[in-house]
Amino acid sequence: MTRHYNFCAGPAALPAAVLERAQAEMLDYQGHGLSVMEMSHRSDDFIAIAEQSEADFRALLGVPDNYKVLFLQGGASLQFSMLPMNLLGRGGSANFVHTGIWGKKALAEINHLGLPHHLAASSESNGHTAVPRQDAIQVSDDAAYLHFTSNETIGGLAFDYTPSAQRRDGTNVPLVCDMSSDILAAPLDVSEYGVIYAGAQKNIGPAGLTLVIVRDDLLDQAQSPIPSLFNYRAIADANSMVNTPPTYAWYLAGLVFQWLKDDIGGLAQMEAINQRKADKLYAAIDASDFYANPIAKPNRSRMNVPFVLADSALESAFLAEADKAGLLNLKGHRSVGGMRASLYNAVSEDAVDALIAFMADFEQRRG
Amino acid sequence: MTRHYNFCAGPAALPAAVLERAQAEMLDYQGHGLSVMEMSHRSDDFIAIAEQSEADFRALLGVPDNYKVLFLQGGASLQFSMLPMNLLGRGGSANFVHTGIWGKKALAEINHLGLPHHLAASSESNGHTAVPRQDAIQVSDDAAYLHFTSNETIGGLAFDYTPSAQRRDGTNVPLVCDMSSDILAAPLDVSEYGVIYAGAQKNIGPAGLTLVIVRDDLLDQAQSPIPSLFNYRAIADANSMVNTPPTYAWYLAGLVFQWLKDDIGGLAQMEAINQRKADKLYAAIDASDFYANPIAKPNRSRMNVPFVLADSALESAFLAEADKAGLLNLKGHRSVGGMRASLYNAVSEDAVDALIAFMADFEQRRG
To answer: Which of this chain's residues are annotated to bind pyridoxal 5'-phosphate (chains A, B) (predicted)?
Structure first.
């Protein structure tokens, strides 16, 4: 067995230690005589797994007691519908800071549903190479919440600050953030947010699980009627088991949380590693005329590093040779082309070193 | 490692051969250097897995070319919302044959959504111990479809015929069936149905995957607007990849389909095994005054066998001793109590023999 270096944007690399543990427990979970996959979600054994997973997640992020953590299905994209249906029941409009393709999709969905929305700021004018600054964010008077994407997975554009917005009466507009591609990459002050949501398949676990962190006061603002399985309050009251949850993905997420706690030492340590990885790769790109990344330095993503070659005709050779060298999934998103190296938590510093060495070698041979 | 006999109603037992294969491939799928969980859903490798999984499923059931197979999230319960939103866009009402708790939930959801519905038949008057006969099904003049639950998982009540309904002009009302707990248990004539749907966690694979088989002419009858991820047409056009699908569950389902084809030999062989298993267990129950099952013989489920003890005070002793003997998850659903043995495809004849032997022994000692 050989494990290659996997730079996939998602579903993404998982820690080998997590996969090894899952492998060992696949047919017999801790002497219980069955796989986690084969357990009733209402059994004591699975409830213990689910509760430990949530407890570890809460501990890692320091989730305050007045927030619920929901374990859902449907991906972050389903939240593009669920969010406005849950938060606009008392009127008002969804406000958006648009910084790339995922934010645009969130906006498109609310438009498709015919629900009130307002574009509070956009980085479209700079080609999404720098996020709007705080003073450029103009929320509407009826803003029910302000939505942004902390890290645009495709563009590689990340916020270097937490945006905020006040109503005329001085109260804060609840902040809603799609953190799919950078949750758990660094410590976070959850109390600044109303809702944080994330598809699992980058830093949490396998595809098919979505985590939503929601402040208690936002649980009871749903429109009516909406599908029962959309209702945050009902889901929270049922501990995310209104119906059968994706039990195996939930378990695997728990193993990832344990790895972050025990093997890495927590999110501050994880952030230091992530910062080193990203710094190295951007330094290599910036030191060369052969590679380029267009993002303003303060907004460069630590998770997703898109880059292009000076000679785009060499792209397919780059990708083919990288693949042969065991550096997988470096192709940029089909909508933008070029290259992209995703450096999620499970991508080791060794992987980044190997990529940088390959890039230098390729440049020397073909540049 | 010991594998116990697992009679869980869902998430349910999986074939050991499937889990062993998944275990072997957990860290390195066929020499590709990564887990299936870590693959982009748009990679050639995963597309091949997904297409093979669908092809095997279609082959097993003989799904005609004018039906799409959708691989979704959210469980069968999410279909309780998605179905009417997809099928009532041209008007008319959803008609229901109500034979137990799951059918009741489907009906409750459409009522919650405020969409038109009509109760065409119900077995409530006989305590859901026998399904309504064909001539008792009275559809409304505006019936857009007729929904039924082929096998009620909690009650252990199964249809012994395929219901049908005609409009005044003689055309058939599309038949919609929740087959969560008996799909793949026996051959099926898919062409009799408009839509078949099933949560995976009984006979298909792990929880977190839902399969929907839908006839092409029913893809374009959606209400507007509905959430983009609810739209059958959009999902079908994107080969179930509008967003990231539950890739690992999809792969595991594929392994189950291969097991059904190669190890079992197909659905006719599977049905023969399932029939033997169920016949044995019902015979043991009927031969005793100590155990009882209330369902009319033609409607007894081959998948879920609920039973009670003559002395209900012995239930907890029965369950505790069974558990100690390696016979897991025999407790009835919390809404009805008693016992329930689920005999899905992956539950072996040996498991049923062991259960019957335990029941005889328990009766002798405690009866």
So the answer is: 76-77, 102, 153, 178, 201, 243-244
